[in-house]
Automatic annotation (TrEMBL):
The keyword Ribonucleoprotein does not apply. Belongs to the isochorismatase family. This is Nicotinamidase. Residues 17-208 form the Isochorismatase-like domain. The keyword Calcium does not apply. SUPFAM superfamilies: Isochorismatase-like hydrolases (SSF52499).
Length: 211
């Protein structure tokens, strides 16, 4: 990884970007929506950050009472689903509430070199898994335009969780024309009702390179 940080190699990688997905306290052990082993990938993510010429981070950023919280729907429990105007929505424990410690990046994450932080899920009535679109698959975050303006043609993704925000971001990246890779060793999944195998297959079938 030290070699990858050399200026000549960085110049050769100038059209590539690393997208680090939701490395936040609430998704790590002890958090409100903890992914098993979520904190174990921090060293691997940091190595990728150090080796990457362009780094973008996403941050779940929900207002209190967000429509994806089970507590917003009387009689519903976390991990049940409800029908929303944009389709079926999984309900989650309250997590990554704006300004809370749970919404902060993991304290060991070397995130300060990031060029851009995309905050998602801040619209009360719609959830957002992908770094590129809200869950209606129509409302953009602006990330695709930013990457194109910077001349980025290839993206590599890592972070939490493999089968939700990482996978949906990867699928949208391919759909927007970016050469897309996911570093599975720098991700961890939730695996809700077989979601990890299903989303891994969807990524592979869509042309995502799984490392």
């Amino acid at each position: 990884m030290a070699d990858a940080a050399r200026p000549d190699l960085r110049e050769a990688m100038a059209d590539e970007a690393l997208i680090v997905i939701d490395m936040q306290n609430d998704f790590c052990p002890g958090g409100a929506l903890a992914v098993e082993g979520g904190d174990e990938i921090v060293p691997a993510v940091n190595r990728l950050i150090d080796a990457s010429p362009h780094v973008v981070l996403t941050q779940d950023w929900h207002p209190a009472g967000h429509s994806s919280f089970a507590s917003t729907h009387p009689g519903k429990a976390p991990f049940q689903t409800v029908a929303m105007p944009y389709g079926e929505q999984t309900l989650w424990p309250e997590h990554c509430v704006q300004g809370s410690a749970g919404a902060d990046f993991h304290p060991s994450l070397r995130w300060t070199s990031a060029e851009l932080v995309i905050r998602k899920g801040f619209r009360r009535e719609i959830d957002s898994y992908s770094a590129f679109f809200e869950n209606d698959h129509r409302t953009p975050t602006g990330l695709a335009g930013y990457l194109r303006e910077r001349g980025i043609r290839s993206v590599t993704l890592c972070g939490l969780a493999t089968d939700f925000c990482v996978a949906f971001s990867a699928l949208d990246a391919v759909a927007k024309g970016f050469s897309t890779s996911v570093v599975l060793g720098a991700c961890r999944g939730i695996d809700l009702n077989g979601s990890l195998a299903a989303m891994t297959l969807r990524m592979r079938d869509a042309g995502v390179r799984l490392i």
